[in-house]
């Protein structure tokens, strides 16, 4: 029995040390002033908040998304909040050969680059129906454009010892029914950028790669999906603040973390279970997902949502 309590005690000490270590906040807000930042998918959601938080910290900002009217509003607000400069370019990330324009625009308006925040994504909630063309389009938006932008931005980022932040998801750690195509694109991001970091190290480029894993964040899109999946409003009240999420992303990038989960309890436990036992992970995921499958079937045709 004494041995048991010793082990429990040791585990508690390790957890406390881990929490103390990970929660120590060394972020210097002044370090962001004057930095040159690109944020994609910045017209709404987490991307929009990331732009605002960088703006408050006095960065130079270039944002992109598809909808020009929204981008104009975000740029104006960034300037009001204290951005040293703010520009936008409207782009459709599905058209890969056009996405490079973002980097050309950065050369022109920012004259260099410190942070490339790749955040845009699109998803569909439905059973896999064999639509290969739509899968390819989603792959372009959620994955191929990320690779193209990171590649084209690399000369500028190498010069500044900059950072690439790729926003992934719990769906990039384990797989979920009803979102297979989205999961595939997010797994692709992890597969590419984890290795890309090592290649950068190998080629002696001082460019950081941070994979950021947000949980269920209180964005308009999340509430939309929540409503359609008939998640009760009490549960929706537990969605996480997009402002806090944006700040966490900025701090993680500044600390050059290789991976950052926010909040950790939305994605870490399932990732841990997945490592421990795939059977248990499948069982749990299926339990949760099957609750929604009936609802999904009923509403299949109007149930896809866009984030950009
Ligand atoms: C991209 O490809 C499309 C269609 O293939 C073409 O119409 C367009 O001119 C291309 N854009 C650039 C910048 O090359
Ligand atoms: C980038 O980092 C290297 C060391 O890795 C340093 O020698 C160089 O001065 C840094 N450049 C800038 C622009 O900070």
Description:
By secondary structure, the chain is α/β, with parallel strands linked by helices. It has one domain (28-307): Rossmann fold, CATH 3.40.50. Helix content is 56%, strand content 13%. The protein is built from twelve helices and nine strands. The chain has a seven-stranded parallel β-sheet with strand order 3-2-1-4-6-7-8, with helices on both faces. Strands 5-9 form a two-stranded antiparallel ribbon. α3 (68-81) links the parallel β2 (60-65) and β3. α2 packs parallel to α3 and α6 (132-160) packs parallel to α7 (180-202). Residues 301-308 have low confidence and may be disordered. Bound molecules: 2-acetamido-2-deoxy-beta-D-glucopyranose (2 copies). One 2-acetamido-2-deoxy-beta-D-glucopyranose binds at residues 97-98.
Secondary-structure-derived class = alpha/beta
- What's the name of the CATH homologous superfamily? NAD(P)-binding Rossmann-like Domain
Q: Averaged pLDDT, please?
A: 88
Please give the number of β-strands: 9
The CATH architecture term is: 3-Layer(aba) Sandwich
> What low-confidence regions span 5 or more consecutive residues with pLDDT below 50?
301-308
- The amount of beta strand, in percent, is 5-15%
Q: For the CA atoms, what is the radius of gyration?
A: 20 Å
SSE sequence, one letter per element: HEHEHEHHEEHEHEHHHEHHE
The CATH C-level name is Alpha Beta
Residues in helix, % = 55-70%
CATH names the topology as Rossmann fold
């Amino acid at each position: 029995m004494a041995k048991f309590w010793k082990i429990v005690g040791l585990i508690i000490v390790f957890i406390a040390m881990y929490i103390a270590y990970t929660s120590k906040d060394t972020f210097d807000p002044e370090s962001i002033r004057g930095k040159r930042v690109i944020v994609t998918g910045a017209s709404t959601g987490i991307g929009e908040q990331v732009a605002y938080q960088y703006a408050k910290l006095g960065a130079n900002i270039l944002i992109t998304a598809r909808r020009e009217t929204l981008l104009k509003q975000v740029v104006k607000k960034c300037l009001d909040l204290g951005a040293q400069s703010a520009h936008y370019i409207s782009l459709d990330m599905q058209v890969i050969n056009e996405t490079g324009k973002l980097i050309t625009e950065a050369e022109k308006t920012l004259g260099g680059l410190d942070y490339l925040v790749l955040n845009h994504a699109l998803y569909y909630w439905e059973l896999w129906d064999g639509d290969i063309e739509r899968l390819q389009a989603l792959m372009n938006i959620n994955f191929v454009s990320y690779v193209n932008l990171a590649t084209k931005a690399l000369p500028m980022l190498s010069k500044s010892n900059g950072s690439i932040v790729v926003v992934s998801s719990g769906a990039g750690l384990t797989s979920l029914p009803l979102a297979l195509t989205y999961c595939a694109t997010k797994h692709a991001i992890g597969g590419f950028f984890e290795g890309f970091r090592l290649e950068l190290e190998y080629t002696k480029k001082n460019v950081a790669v941070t994979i950021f894993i947000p949980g269920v964040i209180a964005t308009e899109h999340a509430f939309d999906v929540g409503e359609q999946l008939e998640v009760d409003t009490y549960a929706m009240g537990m969605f996480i603040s997009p402002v806090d999420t944006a700040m966490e992303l900025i701090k993680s990038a500044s600390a050059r973390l290789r991976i950052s989960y926010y909040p950790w309890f939305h994605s870490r436990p399932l990732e841990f279970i997945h490592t421990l036992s795939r059977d248990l992970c499948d069982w749990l995921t299926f339990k949760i997902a099957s609750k929604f499958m009936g609802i999904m079937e009923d509403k299949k045709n109007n149930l896809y949502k866009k984030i950009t």
